[in-house]
């Protein structure tokens, strides 16, 4: 029989009575010197950290990445140095627009944020279950997210503001078409693909850079929910996706994804007919075929949701030698925004938390701040350069090769190419009749109550993508066109 543990305060002092507050007599008022009561109430008031502004509702699991292909020609990163090598990972799935209490079965993109705990530090790829996004420029991100949240006056969701924004942002049409297709509501998290979405880079030992798109192909097969079933589940089991993921891992049915990449050389990118760093477009898989490099498996549930899922902090700024970023505008904006969100939401030292902490020693000159764990650097110097041989020093051998840039600094129109429609139109034409009908009905239902001027502007985008696309939505909305 195990020995009973003594209840203690947070400072380790034994608690004699956890049932009754201190009071002035049996019927008298409570006393301020009841430090145990004060500590419990004060801690309870602070148990909720601010939810993520986006991706608030999430589920996560631990797993492993296993390398299955020689990557020496592409990257010098050590997690890629030996076929069969396994790297611990943590993957957080999420919805994007909803709050923490929202339903898992809303029509919404799904976040697919992956952290690799490598021997060179943590590497994060922050993506979605779609290969593209609604906008190209991070300057518009706060505006876009506001339309996915609630009206300032009524605190209600608004189809009007969503479609008003999209109708003024034609670059959103490719993602909108995916969102309202049959893949707009995945059947849980195990039955959907994941994508890095942005263009990233890999750098080999010779200093050669390749641009790369990351794809995670589900081995469970694609499954999606019909709108009526999604609505039923939202009312009966709003945590459907989290329940499904947790239960599958608990019973040993570990979900897996094939890890693949598309690769483009710097010369190919310079000559490409489209901007390869435009996150509203995909790369042709005929021109740049998928290369399978490994397998991702989720095989361990968190022991504590708050500690491991809610406090998990992902950001594209978390990189290791042999990988890098790209001139993708949205990616560059996220390099700042994600890390800054964690500093605000979790704390200045969020990297110290076990779920975010690298599995290798950390040597830097950052000190102090909220939640500075450990000895806070001890007596070591907190500045650099310094005269101490055992203090951390920069390592020039890990520098990235130079990236050639040119052009005068200005605010360039990100819509200058005028091609907002070819990818959305091509996707529409790939659909069978049943998929097209579902897409059109989903869009028409979502545009209910939207004003005529917005409807007309959005219809023009559908027509520009494909005549049948526009005709179908117009008919479903009961709009007569000349």
UniProtKB/TrEMBL annotation:
<keyword id="KW-0479">Metal-binding</keyword>
<keyword id="KW-0575">Peroxidase</keyword>
<dbReference type="InterPro" id="IPR024711">
    <property type="entry name" value="Catalase_clade1/3"/>
</dbReference>
<feature type="region of interest" description="Disordered">
    <location>
        <begin position="371"/>
        <end position="395"/>
    </location>
</feature>
<dbReference type="InterPro" id="IPR018028">
    <property type="entry name" value="Catalase"/>
</dbReference>
<dbReference type="InterPro" id="IPR024708">
    <property type="entry name" value="Catalase_AS"/>
</dbReference>
<dbReference type="GO" id="GO:0005737">
    <property type="term" value="C:cytoplasm"/>
</dbReference>
<keyword id="KW-0408">Iron</keyword>
<dbReference type="GO" id="GO:0004096">
    <property type="term" value="F:catalase activity"/>
</dbReference>
<dbReference type="InterPro" id="IPR040333">
    <property type="entry name" value="Catalase_3"/>
</dbReference>
<dbReference type="InterPro" id="IPR020835">
    <property type="entry name" value="Catalase_sf"/>
</dbReference>
<dbReference type="GO" id="GO:0020037">
    <property type="term" value="F:heme binding"/>
</dbReference>
<feature type="active site">
    <location>
        <position position="128"/>
    </location>
</feature>
<feature type="region of interest" description="Disordered">
    <location>
        <begin position="1"/>
        <end position="28"/>
    </location>
</feature>
<feature type="compositionally biased region" description="Polar residues">
    <location>
        <begin position="1"/>
        <end position="23"/>
    </location>
</feature>
<dbReference type="Pfam" id="PF00199">
    <property type="entry name" value="Catalase"/>
</dbReference>
<dbReference type="InterPro" id="IPR010582">
    <property type="entry name" value="Catalase_immune_responsive"/>
</dbReference>
<dbReference type="GO" id="GO:0042542">
    <property type="term" value="P:response to hydrogen peroxide"/>
</dbReference>
<keyword id="KW-0560">Oxidoreductase</keyword>
<feature type="active site">
    <location>
        <position position="55"/>
    </location>
</feature>
<feature type="binding site" description="axial binding residue">
    <location>
        <position position="338"/>
    </location>
    <ligand>
        <name>heme</name>
    </ligand>
</feature>
<protein>
    <recommendedName>
        <fullName>Catalase</fullName>
        <ecNumber>1.11.1.6</ecNumber>
    </recommendedName>
</protein>
<dbReference type="InterPro" id="IPR011614">
    <property type="entry name" value="Catalase_core"/>
</dbReference>
<dbReference type="GO" id="GO:0046872">
    <property type="term" value="F:metal ion binding"/>
</dbReference>
<dbReference type="InterPro" id="IPR002226">
    <property type="entry name" value="Catalase_haem_BS"/>
</dbReference>
<feature type="domain" description="Catalase core">
    <location>
        <begin position="8"/>
        <end position="392"/>
    </location>
</feature>
<dbReference type="Pfam" id="PF06628">
    <property type="entry name" value="Catalase-rel"/>
</dbReference>
<dbReference type="GO" id="GO:0042744">
    <property type="term" value="P:hydrogen peroxide catabolic process"/>
</dbReference>
<keyword id="KW-0376">Hydrogen peroxide</keyword>
<comment type="similarity">
    <text>Belongs to the catalase family.</text>
</comment>
<keyword id="KW-0349">Heme</keyword>
